[in-house]
Amino acid sequence: MRPSFPLTIGLALITAATPIAAQSSDSVALAQLSLMPMPASIHIDSGGRLALTPSFRVAVPRFRDGRLLRAAARAITRLARHTGLGLTHEVTRDSVLGTLVIDVRGPGETVQSVDEDESYTLDVTTFRAVLRAPTVVGALRGLETFQQLVTATGSGFTVPLAHIADRPRFAWRGLLIDVSRHFEPVDVIERNLDAMAAVKLNVLHWHLSDDQGFRVESKRYPKLQELGSNGEYYTQAQVREVVAFARDRGIRVVPEFDMPGHSISWFVGYPSLASSPGPYALPTDFNFTAGAFDPTRESVYRFITRFVGEMAPLFPDHYWHIGGDEVDARAWDSNTAIHRFMRRHKLKDSGALQAYFNRRLSRILTAQHKRVVGWDEILHPDLPHDIVIQSWRGQASLFSAAQDGYSGILSAGYYLDAMSSAGQHYAVDPIPTGSDLDSAHAIHVLGGEACMWGELVTPETIDSRIWPRTAAIAERLWSPSTVVNVNDMYRRLATVNVELADIGVHHLSGPDAMWRLIAQTDQIAALRALQHVVEPVSLGQRMHTRRPTLLTPLVEPGDIVTPDARGGRALSALLDTLFHDPSRAPGLRDSLAAMFAQWQALAPTIAALTARAPLLTDADSAAGALATAGGIGADALTYLGGGQPASSAWTSDRLAQLDSLTAPRGLLKLAIIPQLRRLVLAAGGAASATGQ
Amino acid sequence: MRPSFPLTIGLALITAATPIAAQSSDSVALAQLSLMPMPASIHIDSGGRLALTPSFRVAVPRFRDGRLLRAAARAITRLARHTGLGLTHEVTRDSVLGTLVIDVRGPGETVQSVDEDESYTLDVTTFRAVLRAPTVVGALRGLETFQQLVTATGSGFTVPLAHIADRPRFAWRGLLIDVSRHFEPVDVIERNLDAMAAVKLNVLHWHLSDDQGFRVESKRYPKLQELGSNGEYYTQAQVREVVAFARDRGIRVVPEFDMPGHSISWFVGYPSLASSPGPYALPTDFNFTAGAFDPTRESVYRFITRFVGEMAPLFPDHYWHIGGDEVDARAWDSNTAIHRFMRRHKLKDSGALQAYFNRRLSRILTAQHKRVVGWDEILHPDLPHDIVIQSWRGQASLFSAAQDGYSGILSAGYYLDAMSSAGQHYAVDPIPTGSDLDSAHAIHVLGGEACMWGELVTPETIDSRIWPRTAAIAERLWSPSTVVNVNDMYRRLATVNVELADIGVHHLSGPDAMWRLIAQTDQIAALRALQHVVEPVSLGQRMHTRRPTLLTPLVEPGDIVTPDARGGRALSALLDTLFHDPSRAPGLRDSLAAMFAQWQALAPTIAALTARAPLLTDADSAAGALATAGGIGADALTYLGGGQPASSAWTSDRLAQLDSLTAPRGLLKLAIIPQLRRLVLAAGGAASATGQ
């Protein structure tokens, strides 16, 4: 390190200080930035800026390895694309020449563990930015922050003067991707890894087998992938590629092979593993299936031992996920040999039998130096304390596990297929304020994982189901618990949303492509406009409307639209201003009237499209409902502008109409009904609606 | 074949009949279809339709191989996505069960040659469609036609009753992709191969080496890719993957290793191959470089022999492209040993020396059973007659080669980087009507190739440079020479444009993604609107404006917009109707007024975007020019509506203003100036403008 660096604040600071969100001497400057996740500590100095010019250069003066240099090269490429500058990719060792100096102490762990040091500091002066980190992984995190700091000012791009000291709140910050129900090719996985790195997530939980498909090549047991999939699976070379790609981005890859339930795909090729003789076929639907491994036969454990022995070198991570969820006891109940075994071993019920299976599994994995992770059903007094519990059924099981000394990760509340809003996920904290978990037990809460289950996503739609909402979850897991301002989260999420597209995620281009596909035209402006005020129904509603199977192509409007419809939030903000700033009311009423007129105009346009594109039917139906809503909104505005409140008959009639508009239109629902209720109530003179 | 098939028209028909474009008993039905390329012969019967239902099933009753079954599976997947139907992927052998019966006589050639039989017939009745072909390649072509026939009618999808007998006009229908200047990853190549197959192209000409980069892994000479590229190259496994992917789609892969010029990238690692000692570095610009192989040294031929020996098995095609273009004689002139060699071998000039080199090269390639293709510079009396000449400098060289008995392929007029319109390329015919080439010589014209040179394209932009224009070139090369209606081509191209996006081409999503990148927002409606009336400047203008180098990130508005701006063509059509159908004039004037008002409104919106996104500068400038044009258009409409012609002073003043608006705005030009000239002239009372 060059002693002449003018900065004195080192890594000690973030080790010592309690993380404080967004400490800033200049909150205006901070409000113009869109960092996500918010750093543990940030200080902005508005007294100048570091300009990015064609002479921008990266210096790596001390430790350097391939991983760090590749990350620097990726950052330079992104900065060049972002700024349009023809930047050199040559990285110098001379820190004096560097506009961005990356000063790293060492490589970090050979196999990244849950204890990896991810901290960094970033100091930006008018001359240069200095990123310091004890490990390459910390530098990767800091590089993402640096790129988020770059903003356009006037005719060029600059970085604000800043001191940032950052480290994660939780050590396990994951995303589960289920590739069993619908396969996701390597490029889908890799672009999602890039996006994960951008928001500082560090675990890809790869759900590689389930009833509907087994997705990894086994050379020892080739019928696993050959008969246990539709031909879509990862070769071992591809697995190595993904694991290396993830490591390059400071991301661990934890494989999950779900057992003893959720395992029909194993039994298609190897029925002797199962507790019933079979034969087995891959399900073409998502109904609950009652097949399970036979925990009583030694041949099953020999198979698993050899299988794990083959797979363990492919997945260097210290953890291995055994699944363990939703075992249907009927699979065992109907087998008299299993009954005899249970009596002989004094296993009183199927829970005890599964615990027996998990203990055996745990021994096999321990021999391969793997620690076990499993869904919360595996929690059982007979299991060793080094297993990790992943809570999906609720936060309570996470706390009870922690109180019993088990480490845990939270997924309840982070299910992306539930079609909840970013704000709803953001409100879920692995250790909520006021939790009665004491600090001795709280350390067992390692973090959380967003879960992208695969029943209803394809390579075309998965990105828009994961992003940008997962960025909000990533912030919850990285940033201090005090970072909770939902409006500011949404403000920053809008910027991150665009950055993620630049990184290569298809969450914005995908919906457009799907509209073009099902509308059979590239004139889709009306459908884009509809998309802004429409959301998908919940998972439960979806599963009970035209119940999808594996053959369903998933190309309906409900597969395209996303939670957090922009129009709903925008309308709420307009109403807030309308009711709280009378001076702006006339202008806002005009804007609202224009918006409602646009809603009414969409219906005939979308009806015309639907006449030649039958797959648009739900969109047509939703556009009709939106037109009705627009009419109600327009009438309410007339009352509000006239100064005389609407009659109670009008009000109750319109509220009833709005109630009927809350019903799903096929797989769609309108995202603006509560806002219109507020407007109608205000037109009727209700003070509660205007907050006055 | 099942004897009960009700169809009697067999393959004999297309062998015997002179191809006749679009023979149809129902031109209305045909005008609703969007086949491209147009089949050699098509007969539509509007007396019914074949309905696609969930029970749609593919039957392959006779010959079947992996290639055919994979193609069937892809077609089923696309049909399911297109229709939303949950179709089975199980292919039956029982033709009675098939909705689409694919009846193929045999596999086709083991290594597809330029003589491969690509013909097929397709017969659609109300019960089923029967696709018959002598080879799997013919079946691949017919499958694409079948998919283009599927149209939405009422609440479902149907296929019109049709008899199609089809075969290509030219045997060599190619697309050159230059991956040297900017590397294009495998997924870019593969999605372009999918698109090529959709429009029945059959040759990928892979320009693998040039001054700026050597893009194939050589295990024997690893410094070729290690020092001769920026680290981006295809591994041999990837080459095999691409070649297999192409073969699956009936596409040959012809590699080009350009020599003796355009070859600096070879010399970085192996300077002894060159006529000057070096050292050599990869150029970072596109300036003409004076490096060339030394044709006088035996060690050079030994190197090439071993190199070709290593590469030949990777590229099974019978042809090998040696480049041979633009050799700078200075590379040889400055070397006295080369002068001595030329005197000793009686080689009177550098042309003779290159011919000597090409003869040696030709012998090396012949030993590997390869025939030579080269750019038209290689044509020389000393060369054997089995070489193929690719004409880039003009059609004349193609004809003179044919008259000398050399086979040739046309690329002059098909350069995609010239930024010409689809209509301009469409007008270029390898054997134009009225050509004085007699039929004995015309058979030497094998076909043509669209050329996508790589100086100014990246993986993000290449798709929108290739597509959809290349579909028009594909039709020129496949369809009968009588298919020349430009308006109908554009009508069909609009449909194919959307299909190509569904196939996976990024030509529509890419521009949106780039706008989002450089505008740093996903609110890009104004930029999309601008894109409709703006085109990129020509290649020549581009190269002389802010001269780009290899470091230029190519993220400017000029990298986003495309030829064939939709708004220009739409405006022309509106004016045609305005001037020829007085009854519709008032309504059309209103539409035009709204359009001109929208143009004027774009300027402030785009100016506001540009204030925080400096890379939009050209868009801002073009929007300003467009606003001026909109004002002129609005004034002209006022005159036209008022019944009194504008003064000649007004007219000449506005024409002068329009002239000044034809100047490029950075890398952009307005695509609506000729149309506005017409409107201004009409406002001034000029009969020539209205055609009356």
Write the layout of secondary structure elements.
The structure is a homodimer of 692-residue chains.
Chain A: H1 11-16, H2 27-31, E1 41-52, E2 58-59, H3 66-83, E3 100-106, E4 120-124, E5 129-135, H4 136-149, E6 151-153, E7 156-166, E8 172-178, H5 186-198, E9 203-210, E10 213-214, H6 223-227, H7 236-248, E11 252-257, H8 264-269, H9 298-311, E12 319-321, H10 330-333, H11 336-344, H12 350-367, E13 371-375, E14 388-391, H13 395-403, E15 407-410, H14 422-426, H15 439-442, E16 445-452, H16 462-466, H17 469-478, H18 486-503, H19 509-519, H20 525-531, E17 534-536, H21 539-543, H22 557-560, H23 566-580, H24 585-611, H25 617-642, H26 648-661, E18 668-670, H27 673-683, H28 687-690
Helix pairs in contact in A: 3-4, 5-7, 9-12, 20-24, 23-24, 24-25, 25-27, 26-27
Précis, in short:
Two copies of one chain form a homodimer. Chain A has 692 residues and is α/β, with parallel strands linked by helices.
Walk me through what this model shows.
Two copies of one chain form a homodimer. Chain A contains 28 helices and 18 strands. With 692 residues, chain A is an alpha/beta fold. The first copy, chain A, folds into three domains: 149 residues, Chitobiase/beta-hexosaminidase domain 2-like (Chitobiase, domain 2); 307 residues, Alpha-Beta Barrel (TIM Barrel), CATH 3.20.20; 182 residues, no CATH class. In chain A, the strands form three sheets. In chain A, strands 8, 9, 10, 11, 12, 13, 14, 15 and 16 form a nine-stranded mixed sheet that branches. In chain A, strands 1, 2, 3, 4, 5, 6 and 7 form a seven-stranded mixed sheet that branches. In chain A, strands 17-18 form a two-stranded antiparallel sheet. Chain A is globular. Chains A and B meet through helix 3, helix 18 and helix 19 of A and helix 3, helix 18 and helix 19 of B.
